[in-house]
Amino acid sequence: MELNDLERIRLEKLERMRAAGIEPYPTRVHNTHTIAEAVKQFEAAEKEGTAPAKVILAGRVRSMRLMGKLGFAHAEDGSGRVQLFFRINELGEEAMNTLKEHYDLGDFIEAEGTMMRTRTGEISLQVTAFRMLAKAITPLPAAKDEVVDGEVVRHATLNDPETRYRQRYADLAVNPDVRQIFRTRAGITRAMREFLDGEGFLEVETPILQPIYGGAAARPFITHHNQLKQDLFLRISFELYLKRLLVGMFDRVYEIGRDFRNEGISFKHNPEFTQMEFYAAYLDYLKVMELTENMVAYICDQVLGSRKTTFNGHEIDFTPPWRRVELRQGLIEACGIDIQEHRTDEALFAAMDAKGLKPKPGAPRGKLIDQMIGDFLEPNFIQPTFLYNYPRDISPLAKSMPGDPQTVERFEGFVGGMELCNAFTELNDPLDQEARFLEMGRAYDAEDEESNPLDEDYLRAMRYGMPPCGGFGMGIDRLVMLLTGQRSIREVLLFPHLREREDE
């Protein structure tokens, strides 16, 4: 790998350290406290009037200012930042020269000494000994802090999104706000688990490699098992495996994990994403609605300390109950089309065409309805909204409404103008389910991403008896977007998928 001038200078420093018998990458670290712990302990000692204890800290050098017999630096670990105070009286001339000759911004340092407060009031470590923990060959992008109207404003030179996503390690190292997004993300999944565990759910794991994909309308990724000589699919959903567990007498199960869909990339889509799905015996979609809004409110309470957040310029309130809109009525109000009056593909296409809604020629009725939802309802659902009662032909795993076999008990939750979650009263009639699979196979071309392959083993499981149940799926990435105010899914994925560059 070709080095630039700064990297070559740092590499020369590394070689000089080794020539002087100094190991730039020692095996052991002897820190006694995190920086936050040391600061807290010092503040307690100040309050009690006792002498501060000696500590050994480790962290990355973020700033350095050397002035003859004195030196100041800031070191940062995952818990916080502290000033290091170097003085020739404690360290000696040789150590001060080592500091000047070998250390750069970005290096990891171990520093021993006693906590103190400088004349300006800054809590610092008066260093009595130090050593290199890891020499940084490549300089981190510089960042500048300034005070504007009493608030610290950070200007980071690493602000190009493409570079930030490709070099996330550098992005995280210099942008504390980005690190906070992922701490919040971890808090969201932790709070979600707490809520579901408290509701009697059991967390489980199901296969990622599956012989038959299903449970969602998406094109899968295909891989191959060499020894078994078998094509396999990366899962697009957990659904069919989780519902098998209901047959096996686990009444409430959930899984948080990765799904993989071979589809387009957008501000809200990534080929691999984190999903939470749960299935609960004896619940219907109305009870799942209540469980959903209570779960999200709990997560907001635990992570944000508030049920309100700002997303894309809108203040969003997650306090239950959420708005409920019946799909048929919503489309009548938004488009002036009553889907109950247009029961065939041709009739709905003609009605949409007459309204100038640009229907896709040859699309099945279900896809036409989905088009209207995406164009005229979803973008306008800013506050949390449940859209419910969907057509059967785009919901092959949901139970039909009593007295209306063409409409199923399904809802989707929308927030901030995008879909957040999807849920059904699950179909548990194996004969009806088999007929739906066969119907879907006839309705869509075999290469259509909306097609659902017939899963004989899932049907076998259903024939053993599946309890009435409610099912639910939520994209964790989108929930994190909403609760952290990020407009792109790439901001909430540590390593989002990117196109290859010509220079890679």
Structure characterization notes:
It is a single chain. By secondary structure, the protein is of the alpha+beta class. The protein has 2 domains: 5-139, OB fold (Dihydrolipoamide Acetyltransferase, E2P) (Beta Barrel); 178-322 and 383-492, 2-Layer Sandwich (BirA Bifunctional Protein, domain 2). Helix content is 34%, strand content 29%. The strands form 5 sheets. Strands 8, 12, 13, 16, 17, 18, 19, 20 and 21 form a 9-stranded mixed sheet that branches. A 5-stranded mixed barrel has the order 1-2-3-5-4. It has a 3-stranded antiparallel sheet with strand order 9-11-10, with no helix packed on it. A hairpin with a 5-residue loop joins strand 4 (108-117) and strand 5. Helix 6 (168-174) crosses helix 7, helix 7 crosses helix 15 and helix 11 (345-354) runs parallel beside helix 12. The protein is elongated, with a radius of gyration of 29 Å. The model has no long low-confidence stretch (mean pLDDT 93). Homodimer. It is an enzyme of class 6 (ligase). Mg(2+) 1 binds at residues 412, 419. Its cofactor is Mg(2+).
Concise account of the structure shown:
Mg(2+) 2 binds at residue 419. The chain has 504 residues and is an alpha+beta fold.
**Number of E strands:** 21
In helices, the fraction of residues equals 25-40%
Q: What's the CATH class of the largest domain, please?
A: Alpha Beta
Full CATH superfamily name of the largest domain: Bira Bifunctional Protein, Domain 2
Distance between the terminal alpha carbons, to the nearest Å?
A: 12 Å
Largest sheet: 9 strands, mixed
| Classification by helices and strands | alpha+beta
Number of helical segments? 15
3D shape: elongated
Radius of gyration: 29 Å
Percent of residues in β-strands = 25-35%
Low-pLDDT stretches: none
- Domain count, please report it: 2
The CATH architecture designation of the largest domain is: 2-Layer Sandwich
What is the residue-mean pLDDT, rounded to a whole number? 93
CATH domain topology of the largest domain? BirA Bifunctional Protein, domain 2
